[in-house]
Design a protein that fits this description.
The complex is a heterotrimer.
Chain A: E1 3-16, E2 25-38, E3 42-46, H1 53-60, E4 68-73, E5 76-77, H2 87-92, E6 93-96, H3 110-121, H4 126-139, H5 156-168, E7 174-178, H6 186-203, E8 206-211, H7 214-220, E9 223-228, E10 231-237, H8 238-243, H9 248-256, H10 262-275
Parallel strand pairs in A: 3-8, 3-9, 6-7, 7-8
Antiparallel strand pairs in A: 1-2, 1-4, 4-5, 9-10
Helix pairs in contact in A: 3-4, 3-5, 4-5, 5-6
Chain B: E1 4-15, E2 18-30, E3 35-39, H1 46-54, E4 61-64, E5 67-70, E6 73-74, H2 80-86, E7 91-94, H3 98-101, H4 108-120, H5 124-137, H6 143-146, H7 156-167, E8 174-178, H8 186-203, E9 206-211, H9 214-220, E10 223-228, E11 231-237, H10 238-243, H11 248-255, H12 269-272
Parallel strand pairs in B: 3-9, 3-10, 7-8, 8-9
Antiparallel strand pairs in B: 1-2, 1-4, 1-5, 5-6, 10-11
Helix pairs in contact in B: 4-5, 5-7, 7-8
Chain C: H1 16-28, H2 31-48, H3 50-53, H4 91-127, H5 129-144, H6 147-158, H7 162-189, H8 192-199, H9 204-212, H10 217-240, H11 252-258, H12 267-295
The chains are: A alpha/beta, B alpha/beta, C mainly alpha.
Transmembrane segments (chain C): 33-54, 101-127, 147-173, 216-245, 265-288
Pfam family, one (chain C): OppC_N
Keywords (chain C): Cell membrane, Membrane, Peptide transport, Protein transport, Transmembrane, Transmembrane helix, Transport
Chain lengths: 276, 280, 302
């Protein structure tokens, strides 16, 4: 299998300029992260707020440049700080955001949202753009009736479907999913996760799935990377990481995740009875 | 006698497209020393029903109930003044966004002492002493110094601890926690839940836990009310609910948990549970 | 799947009409706004059909009817419903024609300052850095002058006249629009949909004017209505000071200025243009309030 995405020692520093009283300082958001993802696989990046997982997501999506380190997509080194991005590169990586209420332009109709990437990057004729947008809507479980509606007329789950459809319009190889289900209700979460799994099979997509929810990660990931304060403290296949976490932070994280199975409820109630 | 008793609660909002019924005939009881979880997805009316009980809804909401009583006293017929005496003292509430529920213009010490002054009428020294006690109780290190801090100087978890300290300042009989950990990280969530459970047991409080997270329900509740689209779908003790759910909706909700996934696909609620309206 | 019927809590009708209906619901809740709107529409109709509505030519001087009082007062004549001024011109006709000038001033000034303000504000808010600093400092300088005084100076430099007065007022109003636009752009710029458009490859121009700007329009529309009325007011003030429209133009402010000497002897010559300005400005302001209620989602209930 071919490696789609490879990161070598990615570093990202933020410089906070000083004022009259404050000194200028540098925040190390990423401290040298390396990993690789094979075609058609899912890498989950797990961590809590401030661990640098969203920063990493922005670098992978070519929104922000890395301060140091190499980013290779399909074996080709990409550095956005040097020179302009070609549409070819743009097409390869797309992103789906956490909050489906903020990621769709409220003044754009769904059709225009979906066709925008085509308008910008390709010279597809208008009819074909429309056809492709409608085909994509159907692929994510919506209908052509939704084409002329505005985002506020949709529920959170439907909006996330639209965001996924938009990301797929340019036929990317790699999709960065930044907490795509954490703002959604449980039932909708299941639907969106199923949709993502179906699309991955059908289009041979590679996912980088950023999340803080271990139960979702366990369900969807092939490989797991746990991040803590800008560092990857654990990296391995899903079964390895879940069966035998090495780092103490990973263990804490597992222990903190609430369990919803009958055994742990029984154990808790028994403990409570004892205490009383 | 039940601490909070709600019978056939109906809440309606006036909107541009006509009245919208957010809560439709919900009844429940909470007893002293009991943890009741109200579970539901967005739009299930779980927060609205509690806000209605507290009288915290905007004037566009129309609240009716056959019975809405706290400790045997009718809350609906009560004057706003009387109600204010109970709310904040005997019933208190914590919210989802800890940082947003504290006033950024005042120190956390001022905010907790304000509650003590209004409801308990303590003098200055007494307020400060009690505030330090409370901060210790909720596990804020170095409480005397922390009292002088502003909310933006604290993390989300710390702010939620402050909110809890304010909420339990007057030894309430009932604490309503509206998604208290949703905005927090998992490790912090664990700490806050542990803290809430400890305080609940120590003070023998009634605790209403509003949440959408089945894991949180499993870790905290004694009894569970499942709500869907403003209606109560099921009420059961926590073990029965997870072991042997009666309502189809609860069953679907549990099946949709990724923890319980068997095979490649997650069963979705719409596959397992058909409602007259659509599910999403 | 169940998506088709799933938008139950949000409005399901995708048409523009439904959005308009929602807008109207919130707008019509404010009774003052509706009254303002009705009066404004009345003014527009009056301005458009002035030649047919007005009983006389606004500049025709009836030498036999100088300073005739309104019809209900002793000595009033049925031919001059609201009386005549010092050179025998019919007040009613002049007031009716005056709406043309007032609305014209409002439209032109608002358009000028809106377009300029949006362009500068979007650029400042989007690029930040030194561009922002330069634009905003210039705006601060304009704001540092009392607005009417600055307008007066500008007109004095450009030469008196209605067109120059409008240019001056538009320039004075500019900073408000720039600031408002800049603030809105800055808050919208960090939203996810803008980043998404960036990932899709949108360039600066597209991001600024196609992605961000439409989402900043609500406060700008409100500000535009409010400055519409201020423009009328300022134009009247300039006219009163002799720097705006020149006689015999039937502009309300100029009419006031011409009638200054009759303030104690012939009340109608002064009072009527004053009242016209007052209710026009009041109506537009009321309408602006209603617009704000209807367009600002933060004020919307439910």
């Amino acid at each position: 299998m071919s490696v789609i995405l490879e990161a070598r020692n990615l570093v990202r520093d933020y410089h906070i300029p000083g004022g009259l009283i404050k000194k200028a300082k540098t925040v190390h958001a990423l401290k040298g992260v390396s990993f690789s993802v094979e075609e058609g696989k899912t890498l989950a990046i797990v961590g809590e707020s401030g661990c640098g997982k969203s920063t990493l997501g922005r670098i992978l999506t070519l929104i922000d440049p890395a301060t140091a380190g190499d980013l290779l997509i399909e074996g080709k080194k990409i550095d956005i700080s040097k020179g302009d991005m070609t549409p070819e590169m743009r097409r390869k990586v797309q992103i789906v955001f956490q909050n489906p209420y903020g990621s769709l332009n409220p003044r754009q109709k769904i059709g225009d949202i979906l066709m925008e990437p085509l308008v910008i990057n390709t010279d597809t004729p208008a009819d074909e753009r429309r056809d492709r947008a409608i085909a994509m809507l159907k692929k994510v479980g919506l209908t052509d009736l939704h084409f002329n509606r505005y985002p506020h007329m949709f529920s959170g789950g439907q909006r996330q479907r639209i965001a996924i459809a938009r990301a797929l319009m340019l036929n990317p190889k790699l999709l960065v999913l930044d907490e795509p289900v954490s703002a959604l209700d449980l039932s909708v979460q299941a639907q969106v996760l199923n949709l993502l799994a179906d699309l991955q099979d059908e289009l041979k997509l590679t996912y980088v799935f950023i999340s803080h929810d271990l139960s979702v990660v366990r369900y969807i990931a092939d490989d797991v990377m746990v991040m803590y304060f800008g560092e990857a403290v654990e990296y391995g296949s899903r079964d390895e990481v879940f069966a035998d976490p090495k780092h103490s932070y990973t263990k804490t994280l597992f222990a903190a995740t609430p369990r919803a199975d009958v055994e742990s409820i029984k154990a808790r109630l028994a403990k409570k009875k004892q205490a009383a | 006698m039940a601490l909070l008793e709600i019978e056939n609660l109906v809440v309606e909002f006036q909107t541009a497209s006509g009245p919208f019924r957010a809560v439709n005939g919900v009844s429940m009881k909470v007893h002293e020393g009991e943890v009741l979880a109200i579970v539901g997805e967005s739009g299930s009316g779980k927060s609205v029903s509690m806000l209605a009980a507290m009288g915290l809804l905007p004037w566009t909401a129309k609240v009716t109930a056959d019975k809405l009583a706290f400790n045997g006293r009718d809350l609906l017929g009560m004057s706003a003044n009387e109600r204010r005496k109970i709310i904040g003292k005997d019933i208190s509430m914590i919210f989802q966004e800890p940082v947003a529920s504290l006033n950024p213009c005042f120190t956390v010490g001022f905010q907790i002492e304000e509650v003590l002054r209004i409801h308990l009428g303590l003098d200055k020294a007494g307020r400060r002493k009690r505030a330090i006690e409370l901060f210790e109780a909720v596990g804020i290190p170095d409480p005397a110094e922390r009292l002088g801090h502003y909310p933006h100087q604290m993390s989300g978890g710390q702010c939620q601890r402050v909110m809890i300290a304010i909420a339990i300042a007057c030894n309430p009989k009932l604490l309503i926690a509206d998604e208290p950990t949703t905005a927090l990280d998992v490790t912090i969530q664990k700490q806050i839940l542990d803290l809430l459970m400890k305080l609940q047991a120590e003070h023998n409080m009634g605790l209403i836990m509003i949440t959408h997270n089945m894991g949180v329900v499993a870790e905290t509740a004694d009894r569970v009310v499942v709500q869907y689209k403003g209606r109560k779908m099921e009420e059961a003790d926590v073990l029965t609910l997870f072991e042997n759910p009666k309502s189809n909706y609860t069953r679907a909700l549990l099946a949709a948990l990724p923890d319980n996934a068997t095979g490649d696909r997650l069963p979705t609620i719409s596959e397992l549970f058909v409602d007259e309206g659509a599910v999403q | 799947m169940s998506q088709a019927a799933a938008t139950s809590t949000v409005s399901t009708d995708p048409s523009r009409r439904a959005r308009l209906a929602e807008f109207w619901y919130y707008f019509s809740e404010n009774r003052g706004a509706v009254i303002g709107l009705v009066f404004f529409v009345f003014l527009v109709l009056l301005a458009v059909f002035a030649p047919w509505v007005a009983p006389h030519d606004p500049v025709a001087q009836y030498r036999d009817a100088v300073l005739v009082p309104p019809v209900w007062q002793e000595g009033g004549r049925a031919g001059f419903l609201l009386g005549t001024d010092a050179v025998g011109r019919d007040m009613l006709s002049r007031l009716i024609y005056g709406t043309r000038f007032s609305l014209f001033v409002g439209v032109i000034v608002t358009t000028l300052s809106l377009v300029g303000g949006i362009a500068l504000g979007v650029i400042a808010g989007y690029f930040r850095g030194w561009v922002d600093t330069v634009i905003m400092r210039v705006m601060d300088i304009i704001l540092a002058f009392p607005s009417l005084l600055l307008a007066l100076v500008l007109v004095a430099v450009l030469g008196p006249g209605l067109v120059n007065a409008m240019i001056a007022i538009a320039l004075v109003f500019q900073p408000h629009f720039v600031r408002l636009t800049r603030a809105a752009v800055m808050s919208e710029k960090t939203r996810d949909y803008v980043v998404a458009a960036k990932v899709a490859g949108a360039g600066h121009g597209r991001l600024m004017f196609k992605t961000i700007l439409p989402n900043c329009m609500a406060p700008l529309i409100v500000q535009a209505t409010l400055s519409f009325s201020s423009a009328i007011l300022d134009a009247a003030a300039l006219g009163f000071l002799g720097m705006g429209a020149q006689p015999p133009t039937p502009e309300w402010g100029t009419m006031l200025a011409e009638a200054r000497e009759f303030i104690s002897s012939h009340w109608w010559v002064v009072t009527l243009p004053g009242i016209a300005i007052l209710i026009t400005v009041l109506a537009i302001n009321l309408m602006g309030d209603g617009l704000r209620d209807a367009l600002d989602p933060k004020l919307k209930r439910s």
